[in-house]
Each structure stands twice: as C-alpha cells, then as structure tokens.
Amino acid sequence: MKSYKELPDDAGSNIVGQVTAKANRISKRLTSVQRTVAIMSGKGGVGKSAVTANLATALTLVGKNVGVVDADINGPTIAKMMGVRNATLEYAATGVKPATTELGTKIISMDLLLTEDDAPVLWNAHTQKDAFTWRSTMEVSALREFIGDTDWGTLDYLLLDLPPGTDRLPNVIELIPNLGGVIVVTIPSEVSHLIVKKSVTMARDILKVPIIGVVENMVFYVCKHCGEHEPLFAVEDTPNNAFQLTTLGKIPFDPKLSRCNDNGTPYLNEYPDTLASKTIREVAQKIQDFFQT
C-alpha cells in the first residue's frame, strides 16, 4: 500500500493537501491550550472515564480552565458523567462551541451528536458489513474534528479520555505529536496489570511519551460500620512494582461516586470530605506539579 506522498496522481483530490490542512488546523487550535494530557488504560472496565471526569472537575475547582475530549467515539460516557447530555452544540465562525458544565468545564463528545440513547455510531458504507474496512480511519477523523474544529478558547488543560486498546495512544500522537503527558489508570488485579503493561510499553518505550504516573482505581472500600479498609482485589503488586512508574493515587471504591457519575453531578462538590474526593484532589495536584517541574 502506498503512502500519501507516494501517490503520483490523486485525480485532483489533493489528498496530501487535505491531510496537511487538517494537521495545521489542529496545531493552530492547540496554540491556546497550555497542556494536553491523555488518560489511558488499555483495559476496559477500570473506571478510566470516571477518573477523567473527576480529575477535570478537580482542576476546574482550583481555578483552571479545563476541556475534555471524549475520545471514545463508539462508547462515549463523559457527557453523561459531567451532566451535559442535554446540551446543544452551537456552531460559529470560530468553530463548534463545546458543551459547558455548571462549573465551567468544556466538553466535546460523540454522545452530544447522537439523537437517541440506544443509537450506535454508524459509518457511511455500502453496507455496515463493509464499514469495518474504514472504521479505524473514520474514528481518527472524528477525533481530529473534535480537537481541531472545537472552539476551546484558552485552556490550562485539555484532557483526552481514550477508549480501551493499546492502539489508541498512537492515534492521538498522530494528531498531537507534542502530547504533554499520559496518565495510566488500572485496578489492582493481575488481569488489568497484564493489559495495562502493554499500554505502558507502547507509551514509554515505543512512542516516548512522558508518563505522568499511574492511578489505581477501586483499590478498597471503607466499611461503613467499622471504618476499616477492605480490599476489593487480592493482588500483592502495586502499580509502582508492576510498572516502575510514579503512583499518583489509590482511589477507593465509593458507591456515591458511581451514583454521581450516573446523575451527572460533581462528586467532589457533593462529597468533598470523602477519602475518594481527597485522593482525586491529590492526584490533580500532582498533575499540576508535574508540569511545573
């Protein structure tokens, strides 16, 4: 298969010019964004989107201008978790106006473009059986438009909530070559560690992207009767030992956090004194410290 630059004649479609123009549009858009951070796992079900939503809230609450790109095109959840599912996107000469939470966090998500709760994301093709051929390409194109066509304004942080899969970070690096850093989310289980290690290798050893650290989610629950910390998973390795990375925080399981995500209400505002809230705020502070060193 030939690359774009190897095509001697593109029948007037100017493929190279189109790709270059889109890359330049993203680069220009991100000039007003100070720091870009990808939140990844590689493993589904670890609560990565919940961590992203609450870190965005934590940074917003300390006065930072924050935007979130829901990069999970086929399974978007950020809009619901952050309470903007009913928002209507506005289009202006400067670009798409993102949805904005009550606290001021800016959101762009495929969920804001779907008409029904049960509507899947379908790509144009002769038949949906044929759509798989272009699915990955179209997903990257959609992500490119989310980043490049959204009028973010001036942001201190742009967080990208990546879907599961070790191939997702390379797609982001293609769009944002100077990505500021990566946060890795896992749970304390051997199955999660097995998959997450592959994502760490991809980010650190192959793509050479700075890894801010690891967030271990749902580590334990606090007994409501005695206050003891009871583990949810029986694994001896901690992320420090498993990945040789900085542990940013160990977030306990809290049903109230899940309930707030379901309701689209900010957990850190509703329950500021819980151990999970304190841990999330500590992680947010460590992210800020990372970019100040």
Description:
- By secondary structure, this protein is an alpha/beta fold.
- The chain contains ten helices and eleven strands.
- The protein has helices at 15-29, 48-61, 78-81, 132-148, 168-175, 190-206, 239-243, 255-263, 267-270, 275-292; strands at 33-40, 66-70, 90-92, 95-97, 99-100, 106-108, 155-161, 181-186, 211-222, 229-231, 247-253.
- The strands form two sheets. Strands 1, 2, 5, 6, 7, 8, 9, 10 and 11 form a nine-stranded mixed sheet that branches. A two-stranded antiparallel sheet has the order 3-4.
- The radius of gyration is 20 Å and the shape is globular.
- The chain starts with 14 loop residues before the first helix and ends with a helix.
- The model has no long low-confidence stretch (mean pLDDT 85).
N→C terminal distance: 44 Å
Q: Helix count, per DSSP?
A: 10
SS class: alpha/beta
- The Rg value, from CA coordinates, equals 20 Å
Percent strand equals 15-25%
Count of extended strands? 11
Uncertain spans: none
- Mean pLDDT level: 85
How would you sum up the major sheet? Answer: 9 strands, mixed
| N-to-C SSE string, H for helix and E for strand | HEHEHEEEEHEHEHEEHEHHH
Considering DSSP H and I runs of 4 or more, what fraction of the residues is helical?
A: 25-40%
- The shape, in one word, is globular
